[in-house]
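Below is how a single chain appears once it has passed through the pipeline. First comes the sequence as given, then the structure the pipeline wrote out for it. We keep one example in the README because the format questions we get most often are answered faster by looking than by reading.
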Amino acid sequence: MSEEIKGLGYIFERMVREDPEKLALKKGDVLYTYKTLKSEVVKVKNYLLSLGLKKGDKFAVFGENRPEWAISYLAIVRAGLVCVPLDRLLSEAEILHILRQSEACGVLASENCVDKIDEVKDELANLEHIIPMNTVSSLKPEQEFPDIQVDMDELAVLIFTSGTTGTSKAVMLSHNNIIQNLIAIDQTIKVTKDDTLVSIIPMHHTFEATGGFLYPLFQGSAIYYPLSLKPKDIVDTMKEANVSCLIAVPLLFEKFLAGVHRKVSSASVPTKILFNAISGIGSMFKFLRKPLFARIRREMGLGNLRIACAGGAALTEKVACGLELFAIPLIQGYGLTETAPVVTVNPLEKPRNRSVGLPVTGVEVTIHDPDANGIGEIRVRGPNVMLGYYKNEEATANVLKDGWFYTGDLGYFDEDGYLYITGRKKSVIVTQSGKNIFPEELEEKLIKSQWIKEVLVVPRIDQKTKKEQICALVFPDYELLEEYSISSDSTLTKEDIDNIIHAEIKKVNEDLLAYKRITQFEIREEEFPKTTTLKIKRHMFLDRGMKV
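Resulting structure:
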């Protein structure tokens, strides 16, 4: 299949030939068939080349999820240029840094983002072209250009990671890196031209770009974009699309479950009893889950859903089990920007909730230097592994060794080849006796508590003993606590909340080995700062002297 594709900018061509009038992209009243998608991509490509741009020049795309974002990306790579996707939530300083480091000569920006570019353009010698996305349909190229021949191993996309480590690097992905990943995904997750998707994760993120944008077009599916990320707009779009495949971050699924339980908690007593009875039946008899919870799925716009894919952050076992109860067919996987991004996927027919699944076709995964429990650094080899970090040979050499990409993630395989993630190599806490503690393992246990909404486990130095302690930073579920306060006709004080969280931590500690036990905790009044895929920025809380 890859032989038919001349580059990333051509991934939708098969559907143009087979069913040109089929819907490709839609947002509100704006829609593109596969035929008009190609027409727009070719027109924008010709316009970019008419500006005098040369093969290999960098060009950014900057905006919210919309059809014009997709057209801009495809036109850039079809022109033989290198696409630099920007996070629309970046600060001016971050935008300046990325555009300067990438040496981007232009940007296709939505009208909501043009002002940010205008603020920094005078400090960028290379930035000559600012094209508003809302003008894409009216662009008039001075001439038509023949197709640009690209080497499949040439740089196609330059992605600046933000991540949770605090260090931003520019990942270089080739046409072949991404196309081979699309082919590998196709061997595991069968999406067809009859499927519809709703795009929610920001498109600059590699997980969404590959899984929620390029792969659906590769298969001839239709992609719908909500008018906004307000819950009502998302649900309305899901209903309009009759969505059959949904890719989202775990927090969205968590909010779906929380919304259902909030509705039930405020319902009449008979409704609560009925819901609990149905839940009990569904827990015992899996085959009854779909008909029992059909109404709930329809109300959320998920009545036609056949695949839900969670990614971009870790999915807790509590959320996975909750979705299973409502008969939402969930798969989760594992990937990194550096691997274009998919490495493993949990098979839909045999999922294991605690695992991130099996390696996709053509990708090798091994555990480097495993300990007595089989836990070691996950390393990956395959055609999806990046070319390296842009203008950063030292960082590249640290992670690319003898054809293997060292991920920095720790994990192990079970006897059936399923991969399990235990944490990040950098976040492991080493005790004074030399034992390793994986914060993520403790966080997974704590987050099962109904009273804990978010949690981080970090090392802290006790100011009296000067010894390192295991500290849990907890953001309670204040909404649930308030509901409990109202239902019990009492006002919860700060001391009451401390006692509730302390009891939950004590409960978790009872099942832990002594050296793993949490010895301190702190209550947060605000949610943790997060990346655009809603991962907590762990690096901000690893400074031993930091006061939270």
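DSSP finds 17 helices and 26 strands in the chain.

See the next section for the split statistics.
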